[in-house]
Amino acid sequence: xxxxxxxxxxxxxxxxxxxxxxxxxxxxxxxxxxxxxxxxxxxxxxxxxxxxxxxxxxxxxxxxxxxxxxxxxxxxxxxxxxxxxxxxxxxxxxxxxxxxxxxxxxxxxxxxxxx
Length: 115
Hints:
By secondary structure, this protein is mostly beta strands. The chain is built from no helices and 11 strands. Strands 2, 4, 5, 6, 9, 10 and 11 form a 7-stranded mixed beta sheet that branches. The chain has a 4-stranded antiparallel beta sheet with strand order 1-3-8-7, with no helix packed on it.
């Protein structure tokens, strides 16, 4: 399975961006991770394909929304009320199980939030 992420860019604080990640095949769940300079990569959101159950990290809860289009094998991350601390490289990932390691990774897309 190959993942193609898009939608990053430069935005002012308080603005919005939507990231997209298209998968070449069906997976059990997909997620978004981010890695800021000097920090470890963190999972910020994920969604299951079957039940649509979602997970959000506390740092983005209430501001970011993950969704999916099953017909397109695409997952989206709507990011609102962006803050400078959201600046990071965002990666989409997918796995063939409900838990455990992610098997597939996209190339990363840079999100920069200016103050």
